[in-house]
C-alpha cells in the first residue's frame, strides 16, 4: 500500500540551545514508510559514525524509520523551512506541507 500524506510536527519557534524534536508520521503505508527530512528544499543527511568534516556541522539526529528529527542544541542556523517525505517503494512518495521553524 502506498504511503498516505504524512503528518509533520514542526515547532514554529524554538529557543537557542534547547532540545527540539520534529516528527513525521503516516499510517497507511505497508510496508512501513521510511522518512526523509528536508530543510529549505534540501535533503538532510542521516548522521553516521564517520568523522567527515561535513558531519561535524550536523547538530541533529535523523531517524528514517521513526520519522524523528532531533536537535540536541538548536541554533540560529537551524532556522528554516522544514518538511518530510514518506516513501516505502510503492506508489508515489508523499510530502507534508512545509513548516517554518524560527530559532
UniProtKB/TrEMBL annotation:
GO cellular component: bicellular tight junction; cell surface; plasma membrane; protein complex involved in cell adhesion
Places the protein is found: Cell junction, Tight junction; Cell membrane
Name of a matching Pfam family: Ig_3
Topology of the protein relative to the lipid bilayer: Single-pass type I membrane protein
Chain ranges of the Ig-like domain: 3-103
Annotated family: Belongs to the immunoglobulin superfamily.
Protein's name in the database: JAM2 protein
Source organism per UniProt: Nyctiprogne leucopyga
Encoding gene per record: Jam2
Amino acid at each position: 500500500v502506498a504511503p498516505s500524506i504524512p503528518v509533520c510536527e514542526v515547532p514554529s519557534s524554538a529557543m537557542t540551545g534547547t532540545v527540539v524534536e520534529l516528527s513525521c508520521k503516516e499510517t497507511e503505508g505497508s510496508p512501513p514508510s521510511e522518512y526523509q527530512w528536508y530543510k529549505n528544499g534540501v535533503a538532510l543527511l542521516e548522521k553516521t559514525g564517520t568523522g567527515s568534516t561535513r558531519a561535524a556541522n550536523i547538530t541533529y539526529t535523523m531517524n528514517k524509520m521513526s520519522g524523528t528529527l532531533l536537535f540536541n542544541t538548536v541554533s540560529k542556523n537551524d532556522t528554516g523551512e522544514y518538511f518530510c517525505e514518506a516513501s516505502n517503494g510503492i506508489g508515489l512518495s508523499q510530502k507534508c506541507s512545509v513548516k517554518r521553524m524560527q530559532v
